[in-house]
Design a protein that fits this description.
There is one protein chain. The protein is mainly α and about 110 residues long. It contains two helices and no strands.
Amino acid sequence: MASTKHNEHGFGHVETLLIIVIVAVIGFVGWYVYHTKQTSDKALNAANNTSNSAGPRFTKNTKSTAPASGSTSNASLQSDQQSAASSANQGSKDLSATNNSLNDQSTFTTTPQ
């Protein structure tokens, strides 16, 4: 009886090396995307923090919110109305002061004709 040789061998060295290279490339691309995302998020947060600190300062409303049931007390509504009126009055005063400074004739110079 003649024995036949079967070509049965597992992965060769070339196939193993190819799989390792493919996994390494996929891992590197994943790390690069993750690192780029983290860096851009940090840059955006830093830009937002500096732009927020450079802008005008407004006071934050620190009052407690109304209950979720939908009932709102009359005192709370009056407080909100007074706060809004106060803010509107301050804005009106600022606008008046700006208009007065623009209308001040003492700062204008005339040229002889």
